[in-house]
Amino acid sequence: xxFEMKPEYYTGIDxxxxxxxxxxxxxxxxxxLLNNDILQNKADSLVHLISELINYTRTHFSHEEEYQExxxxxxxxxxxxxxxxxxDKLMEFDLDSIENDFESQNETVEELLGFLVNWLINHILKxxxxxxxx
Length: 134
Ligand code: FEO
Fold this sequence. Notes:
By secondary structure, the protein is mainly α. It is built from 4 helices and no strands. It is elongated and about 50 Å long.
């Protein structure tokens, strides 16, 4: 497994950690899809993965923002703004324009993976930890 929760990723808040673990799973699925040389057409898997990510992130972000509100986290507006940026970025993956061309599908999967890795490293490990350790 390339993407898995390491000790430094745990916030100690159970439901947050479970949701982050799901995000790692989705990054692993994206990585596996990129490296899948057997599948001739990745369009269906890609659409499924992006849809799942859009749904998942909405749920996670709203849970996390509710939690931050409950503890009176002062930097909630900035944090929520980052969440909105992630959501916007995900919506930019245009599901209808995913072509049947193998190369362009792989480029999209690669772009999605880069986006997720950046998120796992920069957001969960740094920005999320700010409310955990406030
Ligand atoms: Fe766990 Fe702020 O995302």
